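Request: Mind sharing a record?
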Amino acid sequence: MMVETSRKSRIAIIVMMIVSVIVVDQASKYAAIVLIASRAVEIQVTSFFSFVLSFNSGVSFGLLTDTLGNQQIVLALVLLAVTLGIAAFAFRRNSFFPPHGAALIVGGSLGNIIDRLRQGAVTDFILLHYQSWAWPVFNLADSAIFLGCVLIIFSRSEAVKAPGSSGSA
């Protein structure tokens, strides 16, 4: 009985994380569209951080934009299949993925899939830059995906350390 309650609470936490990422992502994208589009200019926050409205119809960093421009439903379905696969792993008891990392990835991915299905492109609005260098514009869903990957990488690197190892050479 205790194991079943623990499993249910673990699943509830994963679901709440996924839903939270989607809600925060969609709210931030709505705010970006309303606030940035009304000004029609870049909003400089610091010397290295700005808000600028952008729509990405490609994949990561705008790759394949020309190729995938009119294939948003196909791309969304492929991404949904991958996302559901990651979610299935997150809900397993002895998952390869730590559940919190997988929840961030699934939530972020679903947030971007919603954009693709709703408007044919992902809303991006965060720009990091320094002098003439700029990182591609991104959003909070992308940040959640990145953070989820980092959690998975660090949890896996901790799992492969030898017992009793301090991790230093």
